[in-house]
Amino acid sequence: MSKSTRPADIYLRFLQLAEALRGLPTLPSLDPLEERILGTVARAMQEGERLCVRDMMAKKELGAPATVHSRLTSMREKGWIMLTDTEDTRRKQVTLTQAALAHFDKLSKCMVKAVEKTG
Mind listing the pLDDT tens digit for each residue in 5-47? Predict the structure, then answer.
């Protein structure tokens, strides 16, 4: 990183590159709550934690259970998440789709590119 580059410059460059991704034909866009849910599911998967629909609905920071449930349905229809069976057939595990994982791969490349451009 050069002396004239601030850490904020890298982050702002990343935001610019990530915004350009939104214009590409991929998955339908998410509203802010869906973005938070996506991050929650992604972090849980990264940590090897299993989240079921009931677990997601119980997260107070995401809002009312009915709202979370409707957003999960919307995200599933948009292709961001999928529900998979667990040992208990009444419970469905929330996981990211391959398309969502590919989206995170693209964001990661944006991050690397932002550091390279400013470095």
Answer: 788 888 888 888 888 777 665 788 899 999 999 999 999 999 9
Q: The tokens 């995401």 sit on which residue?
A: 62
Amino acid at 70: S
Report d(CA 31, CA 54) in Å as an integer.
21
What is this structure's pTM?
0.80
Structure tokens at 27: 């998955």
> Do 84 and 92 touch, CB atoms closer than 8 A?
yes
Instruction: Please give the single-letter amino acid code of residue 105.
Output: D
What residues contact residue 61 under an 8 Å CB cut-off, 6+ apart?
none
98 and 82 Cβ atoms separated by less than 8 Å: no
The residues near 45 (Cβ < 8 Å, ≥ 6 apart) are 95, 96
